[in-house]
Amino acid sequence: MLTRNCRLCGHTLSHIFIDLGISPLANSYVSQARLHQMEPMYPLRTFVCEECFLVQAEDFESPQHIFSDYAYFSSYSDSWLAHCKRYADMITERCALTPDRQVIEIASNDGYLLQYFKEKGIPVLGIEPAANVAERANERGIPTSVEFFGQEAAASLLEQGKRADLLIGNNVLAHVPDLNDFVAGMKLLLADSGVITMEFPHLMRLIQEIQFDTIYHEHYSYFSLTAVERLFAKHDLIVFDVEQLETHGGSLRIYAAHRSRMGGAVSSSVIELLSQEETFGMTRIQTYADFKEKAVKVKRQLLRFLISLKESGKSVVGYGAPAKGNTLLNYCGIDRDYLDYTVDRSPHKQGLFLPGSRIPICEPDRLKETRPDYVLILPWNLKQEIMAQTEYIREWGGCWIIPVPEVEVIE
Fold first, then answer.
1. 31: which DSSP letter?
2. Which residues belong to any copy of the C-methyltransferase domain (predicted)?
3. pTM of structure
4. pLDDT by residue (tens digit) across 100-143?
């Protein structure tokens, strides 16, 4: 095995968390013109560090290749937008944000979140590496800088007189190959009395609910509070509070600040969650070693169910074209023999094909035209929103399939 070192602590990695075979990049959707060309395929294997317990994937492609032109636009999920508005209202009051304060978001996408601060008259700045997505934000009046964040970008912003009273990073930490450079940049950009909030999927929930499909090449790392606290402490930042959220199948929202401001004071929520993680086994290697077999059981169950449906003449289609869905389909070997097509609300994905499986992506109205018997919800974390949007499939007896953590049919 090639020598691999932990992104957080530098320890040599030797423990495999899960090996999902080979897979294309999860967001590398295929155009009609490229259907007859080969796709790059890479091993999708993750390791766990026995020192800091960070779970991390091997990196085969640079962030510049993956994220410079991105197919994911955050504003196409109603429930996510509602979550963001609630956050903006809450944090504005909690941090007493006023028009003389500066809010900066790293990986700000299409302005989905900063729009709510702008409405309050609070100055905002987005930092977004994907030029096509940043263009959409700028069109909406959300000033957005196109660059990858780290110490160099932070120093440049400081030279321009920018410092963050509130520094936000939602679902970006997993996309960062150089964690120490990234967090060092956050420390540099954060005002002396400023607050960092970050949201990311919780590794403990991933393990508990067998969410193996949330693993893909674009996610370099997977985090417990235990690992994140160590990462921030390394850069003299303290995680002083934490909330457990239901977004993305179970996430954490951490609050961090300069240690010099907070001293060693942390909330009871931090202490309690660290204790829960230890009790669950997040600091024991065996907890991670047992995950593979659980994922294999989910794979076999889903395949058996889809085969039984197709052999009985039922029609099955997908809903959504998320990255997690592409991991699920490619790991399970599901292609057009199982799913006739999938639909997605984003016009940026419609007319393309899923990577690997080559399943076509259509507009949602295709469901009404073909009246499928079953709809496999690929972004299962949004199942309530999707079921509400597609309630009409009940008119012809259609059912929904939820694949993770076990096959569930909802009539």
1. P
2. 247-405
3. 0.91
4. 999 999 999 999 999 999 999 999 999 999 888 899 999 999 99
